[in-house]
Design a protein that fits this description.
Blueprint: H1 2-8, H2 10-13, H3 15-33, H4 39-50, H5 55-80, H6 89-100, H7 104-138, H8 142-158, H9 164-178, E1 181-182, E2 189-190, H10 204-220, H11 240-245, H12 247-262, H13 268-282, H14 296-319, H15 325-336, H16 345-348, H17 350-371, H18 375-383, H19 386-405, H20 409-426, H21 432-454, H22 459-468, H23 470-485, H24 490-496
Antiparallel strand pairs: 1-2
Helix pairs in contact: 1-17, 3-5, 3-17, 4-5, 4-15, 5-6, 5-7, 5-14, 5-15, 5-17, 6-7, 6-14, 7-12, 7-14, 7-17, 8-9, 8-13, 8-21, 8-23, 9-21, 10-19, 10-20, 10-21, 12-13, 12-14, 13-14, 19-20, 22-23
Length: about 500
Amino acid sequence: MLEALGNFGISWLDPWLLLLTASGTLAGIYVGAIPGLSVTMATSILISFTFKWPVNDALALIAGVFMGGVYGGSRTAILLNIPGAPSAIATAIEGYPMARRGEAGEAIGLTTVMSVFGGFVGIAALAMLAPAISSFALMFNSRDYLLLGLIGILLVGTLSGESFAKGAFAGALGVLIGMVGLDPMTAEGRFTFGSISLMGGIPYVAAMIGFFGVAEALVQLQTLDVPAIKQKIDRVIPKFSDVKRYFWLAMRASGIGTIIGALPGTGGDIAALLAYDDARRSVKNPEVPFGEGAKEGLVAPEAANNAAVGGAFIPMLTLGIPGDAVTAVIIGALFIHGLKPGPLMLVETPHLFWFTVGNLALANVFLLIFGLTGIRIFTKIVECPKAILIPLIIVLSAVGTYAIENNPVHIYWMLLFGVFGYFLKTYGFQVGPVILGVILGPMMDSNYRRAMIGARGDVGEFLWNFVSHPISLVLSVGFLLMLVSQTPLWPWIRKKAGLQR
């Protein structure tokens, strides 16, 4: 135990490691805030610079970038309605209306504190429950991931607020966009219409920036004469009463984020979505309706996506299976340094496990410090005149899109989706479900194929597997209940069951 505590404290006592972690966290916040610059890309670049470094130095910098980058996406989501990362899509739904009311400072302060809270919950789970949660994550089969994807599509339908049908349609449209490209099993082109440029699929970051950034800029062109809203930044640190009021919601959302983060291949975007939907269903009387700037809608996704960071490290360190794209890159970094993440890591190199835990905790501390500073500068973005801000948004969107692969074709995709998103918004469709459908679509497709292969192509056996295994049965029942709850018969069913008067 003393050895574990000593290794835990390495990152706290070494000034050089402190500097690396702090620098990584600060850089991660700003990388995450720029649409198109993903944490995965930043981590990949870091490996090319740090492969000759000592392993502790490399991991300290990477952990800081990871923790800061997941949070950073909320900044532009709140201020400009442009999520810096897919995990901030739910944050934009509630944060942007608060910014339009002049409450951007309060929204950023609340998301910072709740992100740090969720981060510590995920780190605590990593330290105490890693073997147990990893064993549970291994019990999920392809059909279970398929069900998670289907549930996610239903969840994105609820994001539309007024019409579930419009939300479900938007989510299905996103899935269709995500299917463009080479078939993952047969390598045949799908929806490519013979075009070689479509073989690689449609870059979801270009779609995200177009649907959110360019579409919002086009919508704002209709209100150029409206003066900018002066932001209230008198109080950035949330009130203790607010923290106390949302404590259990943040705890529940952090639990969701930790578990979802520990499921290989999921990550903070799905965790944030599930936590946001849980908040919408469980909070009965929010001060402001959801979709119009409800604080509960900020607390849940921000606590969940940062808790998913600690959760993603659980299968990586204990099983050698990445929890998300970033931990997949980190596994490569560990192999470069001669380490083998997996079941024997806790036995052969326990010091590395505890160093990682301590370093993530330290990055979370720096996240609180840096997250609550510089807010006055950030909020000036919203107060900028629209005649200047809108062209700036489009230029930054083009730069961020081009930076993905240095491909000018992605800029055309961005503009196309921007115009398309503008018409969707004009006719009452939300663009958030479209992007989430693009993200969930490939996961659903690949896991459906694996599940069908596991059933040897027998449809009967394929369907039977959904009710013959405990996890699949629970997810299947949840999926059916969610589907029924959106039908006109649901109020009648609740009344007959005695659930309401």
